[in-house]
Each structure stands twice: as C-alpha cells, then as structure tokens.
Amino acid sequence: MARQNTQLESAGAEFLVLGNLLIEGIPAFKSYTNMKGYDLVAVNAEKNLSARIQVKSRWRSKAEGFIINNFECDFVVIALLNRGSRDGKTEASPPEYFILPVQVAQALPRTEGWGKVSFSKFPDLHLYRNRWELIRSALKMTGGQ
Questions:
Q1: How far apart are CA 143 and CA 81, in angstroms?
Q2: Burial class of residue 84 in the structure, from the number of CB atoms within 10 Å of its CB (0-12 exposed, 13-18 middle, 19+ buried)
Q3: Per the count of CB atoms within 10 A, which of 5, 37, 77, 81 is most buried?
Q4: Predicted confidence (pLDDT) at residue 137 exceeds the cutoff of 80
Q5: pLDDT per residue as tens digits for the range 4-44
C-alpha cells in the first residue's frame, strides 16, 4: 500500500493547536512555513516572553507513536487527529492534544535513526492531555480556562 499523503491534515493540526491556544487565552501565531524546530509561537507581549511550539500530528486513530528528531522548541504538542483508519474499520473520533515540555519529549525513549517514540513506552502520556496551562505558566500568564 502506498504511503498516505497527510500534508493537508498536518497543516490542519497546526491550525487546530493554534485555535486551542487562542481559545485558552494564550496569544499565539503560526510561524513561517518550514521553520526549523517549531511551527507556532505563543507570546506574552507584556512580559516579552515567547514559547516555540512544535506540533506532531497523527492522522490515524490508535496511532502507535510519532517521530521527532529536532528539539529546537520549548513545547511539543502531540495532536492525535483520530480520523479513523485507511481501511475504514476504525471510526473517526474527536482530536486529542498532549502538551509536553521539550525536556519531557527529549527524555522519551526513541528508536535509532528514525527517532520514533512509541506511545506504549510512554505510560504517563495521559498526564499531559490538554495541559495548555503548562504553556501559560511558561509565559508567566495568569488566568485561563
């Protein structure tokens, strides 16, 4: 089976994360295309602080992991799009978001060469679900949802 082209969905995941940041009251913007190491920037203009965010998306529901080799960011947001499966046997469900400080992402076991992180080797992943306040805290912002 040919490799599935998910470029459009990947770009959509970046905008989904951007939208969630804005809804959470965290000012953010999309960086220029192909910026090395990050896709979004969250800011606190009053305190002259910013956080670079790399978005890693998975199209398929029940994805096994993600590939990461560049850690030139402050946060990695895993966006599980949960669009079902190519064979149609798995139904689509709402997206899920996991917000990891880059130090947490760097500490995860990865395969040689590819740099694949297996979700099964990250049992505490659930602790980072919808943790937008980690970004808010890094920007020394108060309030939020």
A1: 28
A2: middle
A3: 77
A4: yes
A5: 777 888 899 999 999 999 999 999 999 987 788 999 999 99
Q: Where are the domains of the chain?
A: 7-138
End-to-end CA distance of the chain: 43
> 100: burial class by Cβ within 10 Å (0-12, 13-18, 19+)?
buried
Task: Locate 20 and state its tokens.
Answer: 């969630």
Q: Could you give the CA distance from residue 113 to residue 126 in angstroms, rounded to a whole number?
A: 26
| CATH topology for the 7-138 domain | Trna Endonuclease; Chain: A, domain 1 (3.40.1350)
Confirm if 35 and 53 have CB atoms less than 8 A apart: no
Per-residue b or e along 11-43, where b marks 16 or more CB atoms closer than 10 Å to that residue's CB: ebbbebbbebbeebebebebbeeeeeebbbbbb
pLDDT of residue 33: 79
